[in-house]
Design brief:
The complex is a heterodimer of chains A (298) and B (288). With 298 residues, chain A is mainly α. Chain A has 15 helices and no strands. The radius of gyration of chain A is 25 Å and the shape is flat. Chain B is mostly helical. The radius of gyration of chain B is 24 Å and the shape is globular. Classes of the chains: A mainly alpha (298), B mainly alpha (288). Chains A and B meet through helix 2, helix 3, helix 5, helix 6 and helix 7 of A and helix 1, helix 4, helix 5, helix 6 and helix 7 of B.
Chain lengths: 298, 288
């Protein structure tokens, strides 16, 4: 019997997936290809189809501003990720001790995550303002030498931004860790207690390793937001004082829309993309392998 | 996790001390925002961040809403509020519909040869906006939807598609295949099964998706800045303009009132939705 091929019988399915196909091909793959291509041209205000090899990349890595932004984002990333993980883990462990008002505390720790990075940046800009904010208030209490001027200090401004970002995102880590903690069998603690193992030891040697996947997820999510960081810098310092809080995301936006440096900005964004892929690929690969080993249900 | 509440020991004391200090740290900016927004400028100039307002005034809120300058215009950030609404509502509906449709087609019809499309879509969730932004600006300009409301709605739909598709695909993976087969035997076609069976069944996940998208799109800054056009700037962009383009003395009370107003919608969504919000975060985290 002659039957029509499967794809012809199911043409409506393919039709329904057309928006997805168009998005993937044009909005993701196509644009990335375009950016990579432009990064090898001498485009400034408008894209020019010439080919100059890797000259833009060379220029990029010779640019002091770009190197400074890389340095800043690495510093910010390390401080931000480590602080979020430590604080988020501690909050989750402490909240998991059958404390009173657990629901209220969870709400308090997580609400900043609902706020935008712009609002977060603006609030902290106000709190950290040396003339009127925290520093001035504590000086008024009589500690006239108290200094907390990170936001206007070239050396400390990235820590000020990290402080605001940690405030915003550590609740997320807490939520992820709490989900992980609740998944651990309570009989493990009972067994540890019978063996006379102190609680801190139990958390350090048994719980922490078991939260590996939660840490993995948190690290990837936080890293990706580090690579993309933009809003909070614009809202808090606009890259200042001087160029002290310049970050790659802002470097690209400035070169695209204000400095008419299309080729250079595209080279920078290609570098950003490669960084993200390098961060995400190992985890995806691990997931894929895990999925292959455990036969999926559906 | 332990069987019964322990007695009040030094350890318990330390535990509560830590949690209270942490809670104070998390609440501090909210407190500062609130008290500042009710103070007249004379009290702010005294430089006591934590003092409660002596003369409580609603004027900063009124100024922020009706008459603060958001760039060249001085009509308050209410315009931005309505712009954000006009962006969030269609973007949320559209991105959820597309995500549900993709998830449904991928999990039940399993069209051959599109798994790689889905894989690429998931990678797309991680691509920094900066990489794809400029080519899309040019494409949108060529289609003359750059800087229009449909343009910004479309861009949010494109960027929301990876997570939305994944969310619904995972949800449909838990629906028994027999249900789908029964609907097929009853003669249901692709669209009929989607609209009459799958969408009504998806209500719980639609709630999670709505929370995720409303929060994310309301809080977006960079896409609104680039794609919305002067007429439709969302509230976040206007807020940043209020604060970072003022000349002369900064009206911190107005600024804080404006910040509160801008954060009100996502905070309300968070407070009302509670554990659904957390589910949304967990689902968003799965994309790793």
């Amino acid at each position: 019997m002659h039957r029509r091929p499967r794809w012809l019988r199911h043409w409506v399915v393919y039709l329904a997936l057309l928006p997805m196909a168009a998005t993937v091909l044009f909005a993701y793959v196509g644009t990335v290809g375009w950016s990579v291509r432009v990064s090898m041209s001498s485009s400034r205000m408008l894209p020019i189809p010439d080919f100059i090899g890797l000259a833009q990349y060379e220029k990029l890595f010779n640019s002091e501003r770009w190197m400074l932004s890389l340095h800043n984002v690495v510093l910010f990333g390390v401080v931000f990720i480590v602080a979020c993980l430590v604080l988020g883990f501690l909050l989750a462990v402490f909240i998991d001790q059958q404390v009173r008002a657990e629901g209220v505390l969870r709400t308090v720790f997580l609400y900043p995550y609902a706020m935008s990075f712009v609002a977060t940046g603006l609030v902290w800009q106000w709190v950290l303002n040396p003339e009127l904010g925290l520093q001035a208030s504590i000086r008024r209490l009589g500690f006239s030498d108290f200094t907390f001027d990170w936001i206007v200090s070239q050396d400390m401004v990235m820590y000020a931004i990290a402080l605001a970002a940690v405030w915003q995102a550590s609740g997320l880590v807490m939520a992820l860790m709490l989900a992980g903690l609740r998944g651990i069998d309570t009989s493990l603690w009972n067994a540890a207690r019978i063996d006379g193992i102190p609680r801190w030891r139990y958390y350090l040697s048994i719980v922490l390793p078991m939260l590996g996947p939660s840490f993995g997820t948190a690290i990837v999510l936080l890293s990706v937001s580090v690579v993309k960081v933009y809003d909070v810098v614009v809202a808090m310092t606009q890259g200042g004082p001087g160029l002290a809080s310049e970050v790659p995301g802002k470097f690209i936006m400035d070169n695209l829309f204000q400095r008419a440096n299309l080729g250079l900005a595209s080279a920078a964004s290609t570098v950003l993309l490669i960084t993200v892929l390098a961060l995400v690929m190992p985890l995806r690969y691990a997931r894929w392998r895990a999925a292959r080993q455990a036969p999926a249900g559906h | 996790m332990h069987a019964r509440r322990s007695a009040f020991t030094p350890g318990r004391f330390g535990l509560y001390a830590f949690l209270l200090v942490a809670a104070a740290f998390f609440l501090l900016p909210l407190y500062v925002m609130l008290v500042t927004s009710f103070k007249p400028m004379e009290e702010i100039r005294l430089g006591n961040l934590f003092a409660l307002p002596v003369k409580v005034t609603l004027e900063p809120w009124a100024t922020a809403w009706f008459s603060v300058c958001t760039g060249l215009q001085c009509e308050g950030i209410r315009g931005g509020f309505f712009n954000s609404l006009a962006i969030v509502i269609p973007s949320t509906v559209l991105s959820i519909l597309v995500g549900a449709l993709n998830g449904y087609a991928l999990s039940f019809w399993r069209p051959r040869g599109v798994e790689w499309l889905f894989g690429l879509l998931l990678l797309g969730a991680f691509v920094p906006y900066q990489v794809i932004m400029f080519p899309l600006v040019r494409a949108f300009a060529a289609m003359s939807i750059f800087g229009t409301l449909p343009g910004i709605v479309l861009i949010h739909t494109l960027f929301g598609m990876p997570v939305m598709t994944l969310l619904f695909r995972n949800y449909y993976a838990s629906v028994p295949a027999e249900l789908f087969k029964a609907a097929r035997i009853d003669g249901g076609g692709f669209w009929r099964i989607f609209i009459q069976l799958m969408l009504p069944m998806s209500l719980p996940i639609i709630v999670v998706a709505t929370i995720m998208q409303v929060t994310a799109i309301w809080n977006d800054f960079i896409l609104g800045l680039v794609f919305a056009g002067r007429e439709h700037l969302p509230m976040t962009v206007q807020l940043n303009n209020v604060i970072n383009t003022t000349t002369g003395e900064r009206l911190y009370n107005v600024n804080m009132a404006a910040t509160m107003l801008t954060s009100l919608v996502p905070l309300l969504v968070y407070l009302v939705s509670g554990r659904w919000f957390v589910r949304g975060i967990a689902a968003g985290a799965v994309k790793g």
